[in-house]
Design goal:
The chain is mainly alpha-helical. About 70% of the residues lie in helices and about 0% in strands. Helix 3 crosses helix 11.
Length: about 260
């Protein structure tokens, strides 16, 4: 008579073994031994639940879900920061005057011209608010270029893992593409003219040191910082709050965790 082999899956083996250990714990005469058997069985069953979650989604689905999370996050952030006072009245991301202008502000305040600096500061924030919506397409393009190499690590990482990965990989290229957008926004809101007026008044004061600030690079850096600050918050909310999973893909990927 030939031998018959029973084929069972890894998950089935884990379940059978886990139930076996739990059964042993129930009939064991020693309380200490029963606790040990129970813990072994429970641990195996927990591992089955975790492995089921891991294998229920493909790397492609997880990657698509992470990209969808970044797209939804960036869209929400653009809407928030691209509105009037999105930067200006938000203490977490408000853009102050560059440090290089501290001396300028101090000296002009002595001669009653501090309002010029306040106006310049407001316009820097207005430029960031105006640049953010124009940069949305750049963000979405950069998001689609994320590779699948680190997908699993990001998926199982901290609550802002996708945002921080995106920032580390894309910041340089994204900043390069956003620079002309920010430069145009500074001109459109009158920040360049305001800066020139401030510096004209400052240089009219005798014996002042030379001061120069690159407004484009400064607002670009602060603007990108503000965007990623809130993208991280949005990503964490998507990971933790089912109500924030506004697409089927987000529900599938993050609902499986």
């Amino acid at each position: 008579m030939g031998k018959t082999f029973l084929k069972i899956s890894r998950q089935q083996l884990i379940i059978v073994t886990g139930v076996f250990f739990i059964t042993i714990s129930l009939i064991s005469g020693s309380a200490e031994a029963a606790d040990n058997w129970w813990e072994k069985g429970s641990s195996l069953l927990r591992s089955f639940g975790e492995s089921s979650k891991e294998t229920s989604l493909s790397v492609e689905e997880i990657g698509a879900g992470l990209k969808d999370a970044l797209r939804v996050s960036s869209e929400n952030v653009v809407k928030q920061l691209g509105s009037e006072d999105g930067f200006n009245k938000d203490s977490a991301i408000h853009i102050p005057l560059p440090q290089q202008l501290d001396t300028v502000k101090s000296l002009l305040a002595r001669v009653g011209m501090s309002g010029m600096l306040d106006d310049l500061e407001l316009k820097l924030n207005r430029a960031a608010e105006q640049a953010v919506p124009k940069a949305k397409k750049l963000f979405w393009k950069a998001i689609t270029e994320i590779s699948f190499d680190d997908v699993k690590k990001i998926y199982g990482g901290p609550e802002d893992a996708a945002t921080q990965y995106f920032r580390s990989k894309m910041s340089s290229s994204l900043s390069a593409e956003m620079q002309p957008v920010v430069k145009n926004s500074l001109a459109e809101v009158g920040a360049v003219r305001a800066y020139d007026n401030v510096m004209t008044q400052y240089r009219a004061i005798p014996f002042v040191p030379e001061v120069k600030a690159d407004l484009t690079d400064y607002v670009l850096e602060k603007g990108v910082d503000g965007i990623f600050h809130y993208m991280a918050i949005e990503e964490a909310a998507i990971r933790k709050n089912p109500a924030k999973r506004t697409t089927d893909l987000l529900k599938l990927v993050f609902g499986a965790k």
